[in-house]
Each structure stands twice: as structure tokens, then as C-alpha cells.
């Protein structure tokens, strides 16, 4: 169990660092920064979180949207690799920088988010 928690903390900390480096102040960390107060998931706020998450899902980065403005990413340490966390952070930065989330197809809300 300790090895899984250690990996979980490493994954979430790597993701937070990569997102903050790649996205700057375009989004804000809302999960506790201290790992002892955080589980195996990380949440960031963005005013257009729903279409941002839809654009990420299209790229294969599967996360959750929580109203009104939360992007939630889970890191299951048994099968998520460090490269997966870095790739997800890179995809998020690209979606935000290119403003892909503005595309009409990402604006349509489905029954399941």
C-alpha cells in the first residue's frame, strides 16, 4: 500500500508541476497543494471547464467536469504511468493555448459529462 500511495503522490505532484509550468495562470489549482490533504486526483478551475474537458477527451485524456468550472483528473497508480501524467498536462496546455475548446462541437453539453 505504501508503494501505491508513494506513486500516487508522485503522479499528482508531477501533473500539478507540469500543468502550472505549461498553463501559467490560465487555470488555477483547487485541490490541496499538500499531498497529505489530497487523494489520487487533482482539480483545476477554468471558466470554460466543460468545453476544455471535451477537447481533452477527444485527444484521449479522460477526466471529469464538475460544475461550475472544475476540471478533475484521476491518477490510478496501478496503471497510470508518469509519462501519462506529463502527456495529459501537455495536452491541457495545448488545448488552452490553441483555444481548441472554443470549437462549437465542444460547447454542446451531453447528458453525461
Describe the global form.
globular
Tell me, rounded to a whole number, the average pLDDT: 94
SS-derived structural category: alpha+beta
Measured between the Cα atoms of the first and last residue, the distance is 31 Å
Order of helices and strands: HEEHEEH
Distinct helical segment count: 3
Count of DSSP strands:
4
**Main sheet?**
4 strands, antiparallel
Rg from alpha-carbon coordinates? 14 Å
Order of neighbouring strands in the sheet with most strands: 1-2-4-3
Residue share in helix: 40-55%
Give the strand content.
5-15%
Give a structural overview.
This protein is of the alpha+beta class and 113 residues long. It contains three helices and four strands, in the order H-E-E-H-E-E-H. It has helices at 2-23, 49-58, 82-98; strands at 28-29, 41-45, 64-66, 70-74. A hairpin with a 3-residue loop joins strand 3 (64-66) and strand 4. The model has no long low-confidence stretch (mean pLDDT 94).
Strand and helix map with partners:
Layout: H1 2-23, E1 28-29, E2 41-45, H2 49-58, E3 64-66, E4 70-74, H3 82-98
Antiparallel strand pairs: 1-2, 2-4, 3-4
Amino acid at each position: 500500500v505504501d508503494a501505491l500511495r508513494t506513486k500516487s503522490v508522485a503522479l499528482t505532484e508531477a501533473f500539478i508541476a507540469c500543468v502550472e509550468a505549461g498553463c501559467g495562470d490560465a487555470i488555477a489549482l483547487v485541490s490541496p497543494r499538500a499531498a497529505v490533504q489530497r487523494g489520487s486526483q487533482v482539480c483545476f478551475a477554468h471558466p470554460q471547464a466543460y468545453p476544455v474537458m471535451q477537447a481533452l477527451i477527444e485527444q484521449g485524456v479522460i477526466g471529469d467536469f464538475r460544475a461550475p468550472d472544475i476540471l478533475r483528473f484521476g491518477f490510478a497508480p496501478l496503471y497510470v504511468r508518469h509519462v501519462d501524467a506529463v502527456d495529459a498536462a501537455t495536452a491541457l496546455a495545448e488545448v488552452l493555448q490553441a483555444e481548441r475548446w472554443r470549437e462549437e462541437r465542444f460547447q454542446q453539453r451531453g447528458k453525461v459529462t
